[in-house]
Amino acid sequence: MRPSLLVWLVAAGLSRAAFAFEPFVVKDIRVEGIQRTEAGTVFSYLPVKVGETFDEEKSAAAIKALYATGFFSDVRLEVQDGVLIVQVQERPAIGQIDIFGAKEFSKDQLKTGLKEVGLAESRIFDRALLDKAEQELKRQYLARGKYGVEIKTTVTPLERNRVAIRFDISEGEVAKIRQINIVGAQAFREKDLLELMNLSTPNWLSWYTKNDQYSKQKLAGDLETLRSFYLNRGYMDFAIESTQVQITPDKKDIYITINIHEGPRYTLSDIKVAGELLIPEDELRKLVKVKSGEVFSRERITETTKAISDRLGNEGYAFANVNAVPEVDRERQRVAFTFFIDPGRRVYVRQVRISGNTRTRDEVIRREMRQIEGGWYSAAKINRSKERIDKLDYFKEVNIETPAVPGTTDQVDVNVRVEEKPTGSIMAGAGFSSGEGLILSGSVSQANVLGSGNFLAVQANTSKVNTVYALSYTNPYYTDDGLSLGFDIYTRKVDSTALSVTTYTTSSQGLGLRLGVPIAETDSIGFGLGYEHTKSTVDTTASPVYAQFVSTFGNSYSILRGDASWARDTRDSRLYPMKGRLQRAVGEIGLPGAELNYVKLTYQHQWLTPLSRDTALLLNGEVGWAKGLLGDPFPFFKNYYAGGVTSVRGYKAGTIGPKDNLGQAIGGTRRIIGNAEYLFPLPGLKNDKSARLSAFLDAGAVYGPDAKVSLGDLRYSAGIALSWVSPVGPLKFSLAKALNPKPDDKTEVFQFQLGSVF
After folding, report:
1. Which run of H or of E encompasses 388?
2. 296, 289 in Cβ contact below 8 A?
3. What is the residue extent of each domain of the chain?
4. Which of 83, 329, 467, 506 is the most buried (most CB within 10 A)?
């Protein structure tokens, strides 16, 4: 009978008595019981080799090491005539994982979650992981509001010591938030407080927003929103005392109760500035956003500390510290604040370092930097540098860090780290407009040619009205100080038969040079010189004005065109603006020496101001004036038009203004457009910035060359509009009522414009 060194390890630590045997020299090592595991794997974990002495300590170490691999459910060590016999029982491997009944998630999504807890095909099966696996699956369903989910797990043995695991899922229905109660609200209506929250009871947009599905993270965010709301309105002692989330026994309905303590409303009794005042106190006080006698607002206190810190940062004090210290008088419900200023040391920038740009040249990024090496640190210049690099649109991400230089107290480095993105594109597009019908477009462009920052594009756009093919190139830094230079080559065809205007067609080919000059951070001017050759065709139904023009000048014209422009854009966003201005002035002139001589001037001024946290007022005004020069009439194919979704909604595109004897619009040489819009979020979407509603009042008029400009000729409309950056592209819809149409005006209640890129 061969003596046994160890039979069945039942605990991680066994007494040394359990291994009592005489040490011996190992003549050979044999492994028994393995099916998938290589013998070499077992040998690698043994602390002994042939020819070495094996004792109690090495025996315990060997068993622990083999168990620790997770490959084996049982390990024995035996010895026979100097041969060490390692007997193991392998754990089964997971041969396959099957999931049935999953509809809310794809099987791949669920398997990814299982893999994160250690359960995946080809891995060693551990029955203890099944509970974790079920909990992981339930966690994913609970995150979608499916609290009634049931999961049944079946383990089936397979050949070659493998198992198949099957998950049968009964998803149940999504639990909806049926009621949210806020207990303790007295200063504000519960209805108004609920409007602040993302979570809500079911409404007509719940299918899209999913806000009627409970989420712990969303609730935490809503509680912070409530807290900020009260603190910004004077309630310093506001507290959320408790929250209860209850689910009905059938796990279909959720009820949320939030208990709050409002406390009294505080006003500001005094505001002081103290500490090391390196900036004159009068200037610092201009940065203070609060005044004595006002209601306390945490938001405005925070804005003040930031404004003072940023101001010091602009003077080189990168590590300035501003603390707002309150003195609370609870009896009188008043609070005084002292802003203590510690500017720290003034620092300057040692180096600007750029990393992450694999294609884009360093100089393309450096020329956008407003913080220079060797200069005093300026927070405003660094922030502006980041904005300018972002606007290049060459990078997915732009991060700027300002670490202190080791061993110094007055130097920092500016580390600019970028993550590049593809800047070339081949696009095809399709869209539909109520004015132009089907629109097809395509383009091949490269916004960062060979990493130089130059732009090159070939474009094609077609519709029933306009067909354009163009080649464009721009060097935004033709000179080191930011002078841009570019050219355009194009061919354009216009067919007005699809519009409610007098019929004509034009075919133009042209080329031009462009020069851009930045005159400020938000201002630029541009100049252009181009040549354009146009052929026009009018039929018997065309306006006599058009026919007379063709009779006098023929149907082929050469134009030597000069352009000049100025633009200023201070809007906070191009996609979802809430404040700021956009001003543009554009001039076009047909220069003497060509067949047609004219001038055309257009000016636009757009102004936005926020009315509340998520609403804004937009006012837009446009004026246009044109005239023929040197005795030439103004070319009819360059006339102004108005009406449609982009000018005066409620009137058909291009139909406002002078008409011919058939009642068809012929355009004019002067135009006035005005728009007033109240912008607000789509109910149910709240913080989603992809969609926006507006209530608008539009006005506009177009005048012929001999008509007197009279505001009495303005056409008015009012209605509501929706702008949506949808997954298929930008959409614009409007429902408008023409308020004072003339008998020969053509109105249109519903208008839309959509497009997509794929």
Report:
1. helix 379-391
2. no
3. 4-90, 93-170, 176-261, 267-342, 349-420, 498-757
4. 506
Residue 231 in 3-state DSSP? helix
Q: What is the CATH number of domain 4-90?
A: 3.10.20.310
- Token duo for residue 593: 């020496």
> 323 pLDDT exceeds 90?
yes
Q: Tell me the mean pLDDT in the region 54-59.
A: 85
Number of other residues whose CB lies within 10 A of the CB of residue 257: 14
**Cβ pair 325, 337 in contact under 8 A:** yes
State the pairing for strand pair 505-518/523-537: antiparallel
Of the candidates 567, 629, 624, which has an alpha carbon nearest to the alpha carbon of residue 600? 624
**Among candidates 144, 147, 5, which has minimal Cα distance to 80?**
5
For 403, the token pair is 């670490």
Q: Which two tokens stand for residue 694?
A: 């507006």
Q: Tens of pLDDT along 576-631? A: 788 899 999 999 999 887 788 899 999 999 999 999 878 999 999 999 999 998 88
- The confidence score (pLDDT) of residue 127 equals 77
Report the length, in residues, of the chain: 758
Structure tokens at 1: 């009978």
Please check whether residue 275 is in contact with residue 341, taking contact to mean a CB–CB distance below 8 angstroms. Answer: yes
Specify the 3-state DSSP secondary structure of 666.
coil
Could you check whether 4-90 and 498-757 share the same CATH topology?
no
Confidence tier at 686 by pLDDT (50, 70, 90): low
DSSP strand pairing (83-90 vs 28-32): parallel
CB-based burial label for 727 (10 Å; 0-12, 13-18, 19+): exposed
* The dihedral sign for the CA sequence 431, 572, 378, 345: negative
CATH architecture of 176-261: Roll (3.10)
Read off the pLDDT of residues 238-260 as tens digits, 9 standing for 90 and up: 999 999 999 998 888 999 999 99
Task: Give CA–CA dist 305/91, Å, rounded.
Answer: 62
Rounded to whole angstroms, how far apart are CA atoms 335 and 324?
Answer: 12
Q: CB pairs under 8 A, 24+ apart, for 180-185? A: 180/255, 180/256, 180/257, 180/258, 181/255, 181/256, 181/257, 181/258, 182/226, 182/258, 182/260, 183/257, 183/258, 183/259, 183/260, 184/241, 184/259, 184/260, 184/261, 184/262, 185/260, 185/262
CA dihedral 354, 359, 360, 361 (to 10 degrees): 70
Q: What is the dihedral of CA 184, 189, 195, 197, to 10 degrees?
A: -10
Closest CA to 560 of 586, 536, 533: 533
Convert the pLDDT of each residue in 524-545 to its tens digit.
999 999 998 888 887 766 677 7
Q: Where are the alpha helices (DSSP H) in 479-634?
A: 544-553
Q: Kindly report which listed range (518-522, 557-561, 699-703, 723-727) carries the lowest average pLDDT score.
A: 723-727
CB neighbourhood size of 77 (10 A): 23
User: What's phi and psi for 689, nearest 5 deg?
Assistant: -95, 15
Give residue 539's pLDDT: 73
- Average pLDDT of 705-729? 85
Q: What count of Cα atoms within 13 Å lies in the side-chain half-sphere of residue 74?
A: 9
The rounded mean pLDDT for the chain is: 85
Other Cβ atoms within 10 Å of 667 Cβ, number? 26
The CATH code for residues 93-170 is 3.10.20.310
- The pLDDT of residue 14 is above 60: no
Query: Three-class SS of residue 404?
Result: strand
d(CA 110, CA 89): 31
**CATH architecture of the region 267-342:** Roll (3.10)
pLDDT at 48 over 90: no
**Under CATH, which number does the domain 349-420 receive?**
3.10.20.310
Tell me the CATH number for domain 498-757: 2.40.160.50
User: Crossing angle for the helix pair 107-116 and 128-142, nearest 10 degrees?
Assistant: 130
